[in-house]
Amino acid sequence: MQSEGFHPNEVTYSMLLKACAINRDIHKGTQIHDEILRVGLSGKHAVLDTALVDMYAKCGNLWKAQEVFDELIARDLISWAVLLAGYVHHGKGVEALERYKRMKVEGLSPNAFIYAVILKACGITREIYKGKHIHDEIISHQLLGSDIVLGTALIDMYSKCGLPNKAHGVLEELPFRNLVSWNSLIGGYAHLCEIDEAFHCFQQMQHEGIFPNEVTFISMLHACRHSGLENEGELVYVNMKTTYGIKPNLRHHIYMIDILSHAGHFEKAMAAIEEMQTSDYLPIWSSILGACLKLGNLRVGRLAFEHAISLDKSNAAAYSCMEKIYITAGMYEEAQKIRDMMANNMLF
């Protein structure tokens, strides 16, 4: 384009920055920023300035995003939304809430999108009182209505703050629900191991014609694992594959292996590992090692230990677990060998 005598304008640069944000290409984005400064377009076009903030935020350089934002001559709701979303996307809930407070001091009133972003920040920080205050504001401004994104953000906030019943109440008030809103609620119940409520929502969701996805089953398996319901967990896992045609991902495999091994079904756990594309994942073998220590399975414990240290020979937890397995079995010489092996491997 430039070789043919055409020069980019603010629209062109904005589109290029958007592409950099999508691809997380901060190197190219920084080059474009330098060019924008060189041609004198910086600070003259709100869309372009906001695109710069967005690019840096999505690429993870929040410090630079904040610097560009602070240099803006005029900050509108769009630029604030981009900055706040950047902090929330990277788990910086406290920082997002601080900037939100500053936005209000500057006299700007949040819209539905900003409320949704700040509710996510409240979920990250577990700021339930702030979240409730935001909820009250949303009601007073009559913003909820049919806004599924805002409604889902409320459900997610209450779920993450440990109030799934409150989240359920919000869901019931929504004129329509989608998979994301149901997943947020099911995840909230699952996190608190309220397995009956999680299963009830799982069934009610499908009764409304909404079918589960990978995220739904991660929550269901989590609930089964932490409730000690190995039979239910295995049934969920099998149904996910056969009834719903969902191929297990890494997290599904980890939960299922964890459920089976801690229930003493080591052969099934090993069979589940064989289904995976690769077993070179330390948390799997760490989980099995923990189950072997709990249940006193020396044979599988040795196998899990060998895999664990082959992946990370300096993994202190694996050595400690194997040593305890040997001590429990009365094999003190073997336990000493593990201590010696750990001391040797930790030196290099």
From TrEMBL:
<dbReference type="InterPro" id="IPR046960">
    <property type="entry name" value="PPR_At4g14850-like_plant"/>
</dbReference>
<dbReference type="GO" id="GO:0009451">
    <property type="term" value="P:RNA modification"/>
</dbReference>
<dbReference type="InterPro" id="IPR002885">
    <property type="entry name" value="PPR_rpt"/>
</dbReference>
<feature type="repeat" description="PPR">
    <location>
        <begin position="178"/>
        <end position="212"/>
    </location>
</feature>
<feature type="repeat" description="PPR">
    <location>
        <begin position="76"/>
        <end position="110"/>
    </location>
</feature>
<protein>
    <recommendedName>
        <fullName>Pentatricopeptide repeat-containing protein</fullName>
    </recommendedName>
</protein>
<dbReference type="Pfam" id="PF01535">
    <property type="entry name" value="PPR"/>
</dbReference>
<dbReference type="Pfam" id="PF13041">
    <property type="entry name" value="PPR_2"/>
</dbReference>
<dbReference type="GO" id="GO:0003723">
    <property type="term" value="F:RNA binding"/>
</dbReference>
<dbReference type="InterPro" id="IPR011990">
    <property type="entry name" value="TPR-like_helical_dom_sf"/>
</dbReference>
<dbReference type="GO" id="GO:0048731">
    <property type="term" value="P:system development"/>
</dbReference>
<feature type="repeat" description="PPR">
    <location>
        <begin position="9"/>
        <end position="43"/>
    </location>
</feature>
<keyword id="KW-0677">Repeat</keyword>
